[in-house]
Design a protein that fits this description.
The protein is mainly α. It has a domain of 86 residues. The chain is built from 4 helices and 2 strands, in the order αβααβα. Strands 1-2 form a two-stranded antiparallel ribbon. The N terminus is likely disordered.
């Protein structure tokens, strides 16, 4: 399960496990394409299943997309979120790995937080404040451990 042992595993019950895997695969595939082609262009994130379409409308999933460094549609002429050209293959692979790792969701940071060209609205902080409806694990040292 994504983020095993953390509060984000509860998002699987909300139907986000499959979209999280889809997003990780999409980021990895885009990283490979950028390495192979040697060029970077914005890539639309096109959901081809109903589960992924539903996730794209979920505010928690949208917060996660922003956290990863993806951009919402810029105008009425754009329908899809985009993987910006500025994200390097390494950043894309790191984001994909974080999405499917067993690390707590607080470890996921915006890949844009690494460099000087950090995107506006992509804080490198924990996802906790962005996902208020997700149940969080008990604090260390609590009775439930």
């Amino acid at each position: 399960t994504p983020w095993a042992g953390s509060g984000v595993t509860h998002s699987a019950h909300a139907g986000l496990a499959t979209p999280l895997q889809w997003l990780a695969n999409y980021l990895t595939r885009t990283a490979g394409d950028r390495e192979e082609d040697g060029i970077s262009q914005p890539v639309p994130l096109v959901p081809l299943s109903e589960a992924n379409e539903d996730a794209m409308e979920d505010r928690r999933f949208q917060a996660l997309l922003r956290k990863v460094g993806l951009r919402p549609p810029a105008s009425e002429q754009e329908s899809f979120w985009r993987i910006p050209a500025a994200l390097t293959p390494r950043q894309l692979r790191c984001a994909a790995a974080a999405l499917v790792s067993s690390e707590p969701h607080g470890a996921l940071r915006s890949p844009l937080a690494e460099g000087p060209g950090r995107a506006q609205g992509s804080p490198g902080a924990s996802l906790d404040p962005l996902l208020p409806s997700v149940e969080r694990p008990p604090p260390p040292g609590s009775d439930s451990e």
